């Protein structure tokens, strides 16, 4: 199979590097009216000084600041509606999200809901590909490397009532600007850093392990990115203030999700579907859930994509091919991935993840979307089997 046809555009302007917020934020906000809604999570930005830095800049720029805090991990649709109400009430002209994927995704969803009077769930979230609408402008300041949400229109929102965690990528929701200062990630706790680091790896693997298998630019870039993510995650664990490691992780996260390596590929993302529904039912951590699922899923499908799994083993995980059959090489690659997961302290079972034994895994499996781009299209029964194996 050859590369898929594609059209490429990415409208987010990225400012990268130490000091970029101080240097550019004031100037960037000038284009967007007087009232900025400052959106953030549980308060880490107040402890590490980012909040003070940003509010001082906004004050000096003469902005009226409306605060919207408490955006939780796995942001809920209810929180989106709360944010939209606040934005409408204050006639906000720019949303400024400071945080990780949860804050950025919630902001994107708010950016639609704040300019829409109908039922946002019905009219946007349930209808992939149908979007002709100009949302409220959004700018983001990234504080943890992982999702790559800063450079795409994707947002993943949990509808708690319906028990659905779903993602959509609308290009109009791309942030207008993204400020990426690697030093802002120094204070991320190790648990969250490795979770975000594995999410980066997962995004690349979900793209790499799909057709085409024949020579293509995406697979070549992906191998370099995966090796870089592994190397720099190890370095950042050794020294959380390693600027080079933090820079590489931050940029690898963006590169994995700015659509570049997706071009021409069919893409899998079945593991993401499984993790999202696990999250909808158990509120588990995204990167941790992926770490539990990936090795088990890959042992399930490797035979259907053997050449790529073999290539992954030798080119990414450093497995020696000597005296091994193709299958043995592929399996050694998956084992090396699992060893890396253990090495960096991520969970390897649903029990480690805190999933209760009374959890109805069948109901969760049945709620997972079945992705067409996988080397082997899953059935709900197979997903249930994978969940049980993960337990
Ligand atoms: O809430 P605060 O107090 O700020 O603490 C956060 C949060 O507890 C903390 N944190 C962030 N930056 C920090 C920091 N702590 C100290 N110092 C800092 N500099 O980190 C914790 C987790 O943050 P969160 O935003 O939840 O993590 P992540 O970036 O992994 O985002 C996860 C969400 O993004 C979705 C996931 O499903 C999940 O809902 N995804 C979004 C994607 C997208 N839009 O493209 C793609 C992904 O596949 C993913 O599904
Ligand atoms: Zn992810």
UniProtKB/TrEMBL annotation:
MF annotations from Gene Ontology: alcohol dehydrogenase (NADP+) activity; butanol dehydrogenase (NAD+) activity; metal ion binding; methylglyoxal reductase (NADPH) (acetol producing) activity
CDD domains recorded: BDH (cd08187)
Domain of life: Bacteria
A cellular component annotation (GO) from this entry: cytosol
Keyword tags: Oxidoreductase
Xref: Pfam families: ADH_Fe_C (PF25137), Fe-ADH (PF00465)
EC number(s) stated in the UniProt entry for this protein: 1.1.1.1
Organism: [Ruminococcus] lactaris ATCC 29176
Residue span(s) of domain Alcohol dehydrogenase iron-type/glycerol dehydrogenase GldA: 12-182
Keyword Oxidoreductase: yes
Keyword Oxidoreductase: yes
Protein name (Swiss-Prot/TrEMBL): Alcohol dehydrogenase, iron-dependent
Domain (Fe-containing alcohol dehydrogenase-like C-terminal) ranges: 194-390
PANTHER family in the record: ALCOHOL DEHYDROGENASE YQHD (PTHR43633)
């Amino acid at each position: 199979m050859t590369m898929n046809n594609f059209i490429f555009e990415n409208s987010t302007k990225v400012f990268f590097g130490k000091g970029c917020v101080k240097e550019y934020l004031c100037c960037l906000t000038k284009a967007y009216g007087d009232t900025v809604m400052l959106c953030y999570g549980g308060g880490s930005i107040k402890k590490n000084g980012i909040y003070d830095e940003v509010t001082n800049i906004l004050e000096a720029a003469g902005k009226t600041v409306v605060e919207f805090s408490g955006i939780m991990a796995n942001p809920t649709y209810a929180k989106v509606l709360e944010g939209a109400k606040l934005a409408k009430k204050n006639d906000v002209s720019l949303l400024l999200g400071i945080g990780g994927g949860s804050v950025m995704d919630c902001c994107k969803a708010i950016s639609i809901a704040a300019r829409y009077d109908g039922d946002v769930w019905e009219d946007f979230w349930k209808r992939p590909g149908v979007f002709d609408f100009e949302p409220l402008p959004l700018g983001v300041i990234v504080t943890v490397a992982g999702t790559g949400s800063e450079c795409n229109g994707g947002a993943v929102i949990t509808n708690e009532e319906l028990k659905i965690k779903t993602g959509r990528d609308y290009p109009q929701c791309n942030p207008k600007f993204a400020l990426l200062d690697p030093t802002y990630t120094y204070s991320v706790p190790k648990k969250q850093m490795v979770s975000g680091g594995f999410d980066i790896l997962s995004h690349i693997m979900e793209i790499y392990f799909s057709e085409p298998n024949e020579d293509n630019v995406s697979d070549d870039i992906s191998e370099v990115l995966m090796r870089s993510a592994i190397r720099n995650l190890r370095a950042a664990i050794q020294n959380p203030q390693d600027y080079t490691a933090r820079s590489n992780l931050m940029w690898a996260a963006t590169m994995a999700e700015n659509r570049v390596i997706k071009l021409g590929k069919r893409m899998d993302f079945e593991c993401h579907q499984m993790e999202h529904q696990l999250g909808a039912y158990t509120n588990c951590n995204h990167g941790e859930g992926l770490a539990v699922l990936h090795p088990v899923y890959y042992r399930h499908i490797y035979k259907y994509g053997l050449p790529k799994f073999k290539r992954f083993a030798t080119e990414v995980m450093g497995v020696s091919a000597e005296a091994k059959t193709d299958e043995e090489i592929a399996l050694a690659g998956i084992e090396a991935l699992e060893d890396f997961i253990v090495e960096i302290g991520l969970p390897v079972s649903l029990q480690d993840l805190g999933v209760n034994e009374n959890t109805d895994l069948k109901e969760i499996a049945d709620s997972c979307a079945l992705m067409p781009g996988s080397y082997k299209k899953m059935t709900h029964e197979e997903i249930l089997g994978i969940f049980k194996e993960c337990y």
